[in-house]
Design a protein that fits this description.
This protein is mainly α and 135 residues long. The protein has 4 helices and no strands. It is flat.
Length: 135
């Protein structure tokens, strides 16, 4: 009995250890891929988010690049919002046109093939349920 218990505990510990080891490896792989494929570093993102400092009217090349990048991303967001608004308006107008016009019946060309037939009586299940309801 104690040998079986000891073997069970060993298998459990080894299995749980392998699961956590695998999770740790996956975590490091995700972090590595995040660093490889990240578009900008953390410092650049923080610099972009911080408000521009007053340099007495003179703009450094970094500030000019940051301003241009911010304006470009804002312009992209505005373009995306406009495209989404146009798509929603078109979809709504198409829905209104469909509901305003009477539905036309579509004619299917070809032959109708009957795959299976079923009896409407319900068979033995129906009579079984009726007997159960009476009891």
């Amino acid at each position: 009995m104690t040998q079986n218990l000891r073997a069970g505990i060993e298998v459990t510990v080894i299995g749980m250890g392998l699961v956590f080891l695998t999770l740790i490896i996956v975590m490091f792989a995700i972090q590595l891929l995040g660093r490889i494929f990240r578009g900008q570093s953390l410092e650049e993102a923080q610099a972009e988010a911080s408000p521009p400092q007053d340099t007495g009217g003179a703009q450094t090349p970094q500030d000019a690049t940051l301003t241009a990048a911010t304006e470009t991303s804002a312009s992209r967001l505005g373009d995306e919002a406009a495209a989404i608004a146009v798509a929603i308006a078109l979809a709504r107008s198409r829905m209104n046109q469909r509901h305003a016009q009477p539905a036309e019946e579509e004619e299917f060309v070809g032959e109708v093939i009957s795959v299976a037939t079923f009896e409407a009586s319900g068979g033995p299940w129906k009579s079984h349920n009726r007997l159960q309801a009476v009891r």
